[in-house]
Amino acid sequence: MAQITEKTLVIIKPDGIQRSLIGEIVKRFERAGLKLVAVKMVVPTMEQIEKHYTLDPSWRQKNGEKSIKGYQDKGLEPPTDDPLEMSGMTLEKLKKYLSSGPVIPMIWQGLHAVAIVRKLTGGTEPLTSDVGTIRGDFVLDSYERSDVDKRAVRNLIHASGSVGEAEQEIEHWFSNGEIFNYRLVQESVLYDVNLDGILE
Ligand code: GDP
Ligand code: MG
After folding, report:
1. I want to staple 39 with a disulfide (CB 3.0 to 4.6 A). Which of 88, 98, 106, 187 is the partner?
2. Where, by residue number, does the polypeptide cross the bilayer (predicted)?
3. Domain limits at 32?
4. Whole-model pTM?
């Protein structure tokens, strides 16, 4: 069962910072009731970025298959039929994108943190991300355009895709000493069985 201590990793990517959206992005997670338990600014190295995307050994295969299918669904010829070669190309673009400036990794904690953050983040491609989500409301990129320009799609933030992915990614970006255990007063309203102590 989901725990109220569930954690997820969010990274505000370089375009999110350049677009002055740090506050807006933080606000959306904060107002949903999630608790910020770690945050810092870093310029990631190429190695850090490659490791981030390949923490799941099946990522190369799955990401490659997804991208190839994306081309085929649009009636376009993919640059290669080999999923590993395809994701290798994507990875190079992601390394260039994410190392182009400072990024802000953060850990958000709360009930269903992973799924709630994914919902607020929206789908990967801004062209089709739902209105009301971060990617749907604040950016306008597409695979079509980013593929022609041979760059990664600019989608403002990264958010862990599953609880397992979140655990690995948190360990990759943060040391234990950088993660805080503390109580938020609003947690009793979010999680207590009885709303005692409101009426005087
Ligand atoms: P996320 O979890 O929503 O960020 O998406 P994924 O983990 O599936 O993909 C990671 C990154 O790979 C995305 O941010 C994109 O840069 C890239 N990517 C994923 N799917 C596609 C695709 O179908 N086409 C292209 N061109 N890039 C993709
Ligand atoms: Mg992902």
Report:
1. 106
2. none
3. 7-43+101-189
4. 0.96
